[in-house]
Amino acid sequence: MNKMAKGAIASGVGVVLLVGGGGTLATWNQAQTASMGSIVSGDLNLEVNSATNIGKWTNAAGTVVDVKAYKVVPGETLTYTQDLKVTLTGDQMAAKLAVTGTGVNTTFLDKNVVVAPTTIKDGVKAIAADDVLTPSVNGHVVTASTTFTFKTSTDARDGAGAKSYEFGGVGYKLVQQAPPAPNSL
After folding, report:
1. What CA–CA distance (Å, rounded) separates 147 from 59?
2. NCBIfam families, from UniProt (predicted)?
């Protein structure tokens, strides 16, 4: 085979490799920016509304009590009530109010104290403890109430003497609920 034929074959193989391997041949393409606009985030916030209520404790009779000096006995119920300002903005915003820190700083046994789910009032409208809050309460001052019941079924002297329940770590939090998943039925 002569040099010309070998050169032509080598050139042909090179061209095939360039074309087959993606080489330098270009295809047309076009890019265009879209006018999508911008988006702004919503908000979720919870504040103690000390202007209207700094929080208070009442017993089952509705009498305001000072928990620092109060001596609780089995069968009693104490309720803490606090006004909270709620911020909930966002087209799909939903949240639940939860009580935090119960049972953390206590020498009472769990079997002797029951913490009821927190109830909420928006004005005069009651909201169940497991209800989801929506932007319809945005900017409202809601009243949260949490009840601690010291059970009558306490055994012998469980909880007697110097048992204590430190309420300083008890608080409230808003927990956002995830929006529905796309295409969920």
Report:
1. 9
2. cognate_SipW (TIGR04088), exp_by_SipW_III (TIGR04089)
Whether the predicted model's global pTM rises above the 0.90 cut: no
Would you give the DSSP letter of residue 24?
S
Q: How many CB atoms lie within 10 A of CB 11?
A: 10
Whether the CB-CB separation of 140 and 127 falls below 8 Å is answered with no
At residue 113's C-alpha, the angle toward residues 115 and 83, to 5°, is 30
Q: Write the pLDDT tens digit of every residue in 67-102.
A: 888 888 888 899 999 999 999 999 999 999 988 877
Count Cβ neighbours within 10 Å for each residue of 79-91 and write b for 16 or more, e otherwise: bbbbbbbbbbebe
Both tokens of 159, joined, read: 């909880």
Rounded distance, CA 97 to CA 118, Å? 8
Q: What is the pLDDT of residues 101-135, one digit of tens each?
A: 776 666 666 677 788 888 899 988 888 877 899 99
Residue length of the chain? 185
Residue 22 DSSP SS3: coil
Give how far Cα 116 sits from Cα of 11, 21, 32, 159, 176, Å. 85, 70, 58, 19, 21
Any long-range contacts for 57-66 (C-beta under 8 Å, 24+ apart)? none
In the DSSP assignment, the letter for residue 12 is H
Count of helix runs (H) and strand runs (E) in the chain: 1, 10
